[in-house]
Write a structure and sequence with these properties.
single chain, alpha/beta, Rossmann fold, six-stranded parallel beta sheet, globular, binds uridine-diphosphate-N-acetylglucosamine
Length: 367
């Protein structure tokens, strides 16, 4: 029986951990899973809604670290996670993604000699100004088993000197959650609530510090947004960081005055899935949404200069457009004028069975 601590911290972690915990619970003779929530994200709509939508069991331990500077937040997770590991003495700790909770918990385990698996390993934007890139590089160096979503990630790890024996190409865990909730999402009433009709609106999400913490960048995006909204309705679920910054840079009023643009609070997993799956186009600076739109064949404009998920560009759904209004708009017009195609291309192993492969690998490695 393997005792595994599954760490969640921030919103993009929940949909990665849910299918893994579900699979471990299904194999109850082999696994005793625990869920530890660091509390990096703590608002009801950034956290609780996801536990509900993804049927993730209540955390066994809640560390309650909350917000802070990167150093303060990372240190707080480490300080509070260490006694949990010492008390529980797990066989494995699984961390996912690239948030501060990921590196903090991996580092605690590396120092205690507890085995760590990193899910979504090997992604690289090659942009070290991005906090997540630092978290990815460091977590991959110290984790024992690296679960990668696509072959480019394997290559990145090999290039950094990580031996092949530590790498397992298992596919994209986000897609497990997506496939499992797709039918359920059809029952969501989000379209009616927002008054939008299938295939006829855009969705925007924004939270990267490089976009929202820079007044010029944020103002440029708002300018592009006004023009996009003059062509089709736009729904913009606003991340708390972004809401704060719009206010701080005195852009809130300007945004609220844009016709045809709806600002809403962050949505839960199921409502958001239903929302983007019906969109004509998605504009985002998120990592996960680049992948989710690829899985469903929805055109995506990524408001960044680089991506750690180049496979989404290779598949033809995603393109990088930066944050300058002219570039965003040129790409927007080109994308919406293009007739939508039915030939969905999916990367290998984005098949909804990644959790099974991860869990089986843990068992094999431990034999
Ligand atoms: C974090 C992750 C990022 C991920 C994003 C998804 C890191 C380095 N960044 O960024 O990779 O894509 O989550 O959302 O880990 N806040 C609230 N309520 C919450 C959470 C945050 O109000 O529940 C506010 C706080 O004021 C906080 C700010 O949002 O200071 C930013 O939160 P933080 O966790 O520091 O980073 P994110 O920008 O959310």
């Amino acid at each position: 029986m393997l005792k595994v601590i599954n760490v969640v911290g921030a919103r993009p972690n929940f949909m990665k951990v849910a299918p893994i915990v579900e699979e471990m619970k299904r194999r109850e003779r082999e696994f005793a899973p625990l869920v530890v929530h660091t509390g990096q994200h703590y608002d009801a709509d950034m956290s609780d809604a996801f536990f509900r939508d993804l049927e993730l069991p209540e955390p066994d331990v809640y560390l309650g670290v909350g917000s802070g500077s990167h150093a303060a937040q990372t240190a707080a997770v480490m300080e509070r996670f260490e006694p949990v590991v010492l008390q529980e003495r797990p066989d494995w700790v699984l961390v996912v993604g690239d948030v501060n909770s990921t590196i903090a918990c991996a580092l605690v385990c590396a120092k205690l000699g507890v085995k760590v698996g990193h899910v979504e390993a090997g992604l690289r934007s090659r942009d070290r100004t991005m906090p997540e890139e630092i978290n990815r590089v460091l977590t991959d160096q110290i984790a024992d088993l690296l679960f990668t979503p696509s072959a480019d990630a394997d290559q990145n790890l090999l290039n950094e000197g990580i031996p092949q024996e530590r790498i397992r190409l298992v596919g994209n865990i986000m897609i497990d959650s997506l496939y499992r909730r797709l039918n359920h999402a059809k029952q969501s009433t989000i379209h009616q609530k927002l008054g939008v009709s299938d295939g006829d609106y855009a969705v925007l999400t924004l939270h990267r510090p490089s976009n929202v913490d820079e007044p010029d960048h944020l103002a440029g995006i708002v300018k592009a947004l006004a023009e996009v909204a003059s062509k089709m309705p736009v729904v913009f679920p606003v991340h708390p960081r972004t809401r704060k910054k719009l206010h701080e840079f005195e852009l809130s009023e300007r945004v609220e005055r844009i016709d045809n643009l709806q600002l809403v609070d962050p949505l839960g997993y199921v409502d958001f899935l239903q929302l983007y799956s019906g969109a004509r186009i998605v504009l985002t600076d998120s990592g996960g949404i680049q992948e989710e739109t690829t899985a469903l064949g929805i055109p995506c404009l990524t408001l960044r200069e680089n991506t750690e998920r180049p496979i989404t560009i290779e598949m033809g759904t995603n393109q990088l457009v930066g944050c300058e209004p002219e570039r965003i708009l040129a790409a927007f017009y080109a994308a919406v004028e293009k007739p939508s195609s039915n030939d969905l291309r999916l990367p290998p192993l984005w098949d909804g069975h990644t959790a099974e492969r991860i869990v089986s690998s843990l068992l094999e490695y431990s034999r």
